[in-house]
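Quick one, probably user error.
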């Protein structure tokens, strides 16, 4: 198979230049398996990786995404201590939401009832000085007068903070409760898990390591050895974060990095077949590639420098190099992916998963605050080579070098879309729908089965909603 031959040969195609060709299918969208790898040894359950940008991925995004089966790459526009701390927070977070909800013995039944109603649960722990005394039942709170203090506790159901979801679900069934109180190794109360928190991400399976901790990645510079050494202890994958990895100084530095790290190492970004071959020939440890230069929604590299390797084209180039040189490692298509269809077009030319910036910047869990303008809500999103991001980098990172005196990214607002869960559900359903049309049950099948055809810009208008007066 040669992925490049799937693309029109008379141009450098971008996502909008091509369409996926439907085929005879026996595959229903719900049957499509979207699990894949982000790097040689790191399996993910959905093909979504969040971009290491300071308006996209810190610990909140990485936790939420890993709970949904994807993986977040924590950005590096901060001090080493801060980045390590954020990665640790992901590793310390349970696979499910934990609520710090309880009552103490002096509180009134009415207060307990209100919390139980908000959480839609029948039980709540009564906690004194960090010790779980027992559970109060909703029915008892309903029966007794409003001002009565919390009493009538039954024996509590308690588990350790990192208990696995199956274990917690079984405890709830065995004890006929809908809440488990979580404690640390010294039996100090840490919060509760409810039956609803165990159900909230279904049908997604969290992306966890062998010890049941959420998986996480971190962005690195090839010159920042101290950062790499410290992150390597915690992360599942280190992701090289440079605009063009095919650079002599970067490659030289990477050769030293390879000797030090035990986590998987993803190299990027790369734009061409030749660049990938140079790297394959020079770098010992390659556990994945990030493909695409200048396609990102906030990129101005293409405009400022005239240089670009649009993601769809770059993915085919890098995937072919890996294939031809016998390197079976994931290719992450990165930049300009707007829709699930774009993701599946990238799979068609050899991608294993996609990296999303703008799409995830719109979520509640991205690091920037929600901004209200009139009755609309937005989030701030910026390129990592934009003026604002570069200023911060020089302020916090003693390893940053001013190699260029020009910004290659822009800053702006994107519409706010609420919890990342909603965005991911829609995106994954879209991917499954597209793969259903193609008749591909998995991403590997997509490499083989998906066909692309060139579409004109006039034709492109016809496959978008058109000729209606008002659109809601
Ligand atoms: P999307 O389209 O998902 O793209 O928002 C995110 C990707 O864009 C890259 N990136 C940049 N590229 N200047 C660039 O030329 C920048 O300032 C910049 N910041 C991010 C990066 O690959 C990211 O994942």
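Nope, works fine. Designed sequence:
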């Amino acid at each position: 198979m040669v992925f490049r031959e799937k693309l029109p040969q008379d141009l450098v195609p971008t996502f909008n230049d091509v369409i996926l060709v439907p085929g005879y299918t026996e595959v229903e969208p719900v049957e499509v398996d979207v699990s894949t790898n982000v790097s040689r040894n790191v399996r993910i359950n959905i093909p979504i990786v969040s971009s290491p940008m300071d308006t996209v991925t810190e610990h909140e995004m990485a936790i939420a995404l890993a709970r949904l089966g994807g993986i977040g790459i924590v950005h590096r526009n901060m001090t080493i201590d801060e980045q390590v701390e954020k990665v640790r927070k992901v590793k310390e977070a349970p696979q499910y939401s934990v609520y710090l909800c309880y009552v103490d013995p002096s509180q009134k039944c009415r207060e307990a009832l209100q919390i139980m109603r908000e959480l839609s649960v029948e039980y709540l722990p009564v906690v004194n000085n960090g010790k779980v005394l027992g559970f109060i039942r909703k029915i008892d709170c309903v029966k007794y007068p409003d001002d009565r203090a919390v009493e009538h506790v039954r024996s509590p159901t308690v588990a350790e903070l990192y208990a696995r979801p199956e274990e917690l679900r079984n405890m709830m069934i065995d004890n006929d409760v809908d809440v488990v109180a979580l404690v640390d190794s010294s039996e100090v109360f840490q919060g509760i898990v409810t039956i609803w928190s165990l159900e909230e991400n279904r049908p997604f399976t969290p992306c966890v390591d062998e010890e049941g901790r959420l998986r996480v990645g971190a962005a690195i510079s090839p010159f920042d050895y101290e950062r790499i050494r410290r992150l390597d202890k915690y992360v599942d994958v280190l992701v090289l974060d440079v605009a063009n990895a095919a650079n002599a100084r970067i490659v030289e530095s990477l050769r030293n990095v390879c000797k030090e790290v035990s986590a998987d190492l993803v190299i990027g970004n790369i734009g061409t077949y030749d660049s990938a071959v140079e790297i394959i020939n020079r770098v010992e440890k390659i556990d994945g590639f990030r493909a695409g230069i200048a396609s990102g929604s906030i990129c101005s590299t293409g405009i400022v420098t005239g240089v670009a390797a649009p993601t769809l084209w770059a993915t085919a180039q890098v995937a072919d190099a890996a294939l031809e040189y016998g390197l079976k490692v994931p290719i992450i298509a990165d930049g300009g992916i707007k829709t699930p269809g774009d993701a599946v077009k990238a799979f068609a030319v050899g991608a294993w998963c996609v990296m999303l910036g703008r799409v995830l910047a719109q979520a509640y869990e991205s690091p920037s605050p929600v901004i209200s303008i009139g009755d609309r809500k937005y989030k701030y999103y910026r390129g990592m080579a934009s003026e604002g991001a570069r200023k911060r980098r020089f302020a916090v990172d003693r390893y940053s070098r001013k190699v260029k005196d020009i910004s290659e990214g822009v800053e702006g607002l994107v519409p706010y879309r609420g919890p990342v869960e909603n965005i991911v559900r829609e995106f994954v359903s879209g991917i499954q729908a597209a793969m259903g049309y193609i008749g591909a049950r998995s991403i590997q099948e997509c490499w083989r089965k998906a066909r692309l055809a060139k579409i004109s810009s006039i034709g492109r208008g016809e496959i978008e909603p058109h000729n209606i007066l008002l659109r809601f």
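The chain has a mean pLDDT of 93.
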